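Anyone opening a protein record will find just a pair of labelled lines. With that in mind, the following record should read easily:
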Amino acid sequence: MKKFGFIGLGIMGNAMALNLVKAGLDVTVWNRNSEKCSALVAQGAKQGNTPREVAEACDITFTIVSDPTAALAICEGPDGVVAGIGEGRSYIDMSTVDDATSQKISAAITEAGGRFLEAPVSGTKKPAEDGTLIILAAGDKSVYDDALPAFEIMGKMSPYLGEIGQGAKMKLVVNMIMGGMLSIFSEGVSLGLKADLDGEQLLEIIAAGAMANPMFAVKGPMLLAEQYDTSFPLKHMQKDMRLAVDLGDQLDLSLPTAATSNESFKQARKAGYADEDIAAIYKTVK
């Protein structure tokens, strides 16, 4: 039986790793805050002492961390993944990073004798818990084939997108659209309430028409109640919006709506809402 590693046990990683453990796979976990490993160990996971130790012990190691800086840090140094990957083992980074970061990690893993796949995920806390994420894989096809049984536990869809960078770019496009939608949705709800419309009726009308979508169905009641249980931290969405705008700059493509939405998320971060759910952008416009 293949041995799997899982590095990064935040909101997403904890749920994803738990699904692998519950499916009966041999899973070794690591997190910077080791206390987050306890619940998974109680469910049957093993605990590694360093990312290097996890990579050394496992056939395939998954990682999902907050941003490009964290993704690189997991790989680097004497205790990093690169130091432990070795010949024949595989590394799959499921973090949302830019193309350049993914290429850098790929080169380091390959040079060390390992195989690399990027596989950022589309979805938040509930899909991670339910195993219904969309996994956007790109890179070494042999790693994708080996990891597919695990992907099918963590997600409902895992398309193979081609060469390194395609997964990262697909994720940025998806999140850029989502951030823009949430920004205008927040403004619309705020305008409706300021104009003395009934909030519940507004959501019902939106849900009955062409704009109906799962995100509005979930986030709408959160806006009306102003209760923001975090399933996707706002600071991470702002990071994704920034990376998407940067990609547009690299491709000489103007993205004015995305740039404006990015500024709205930056404003929300500065206002102290970084660790709240992305729906907390509403606080900056209500």
About this structure: The chain has 13 helices and ten strands.
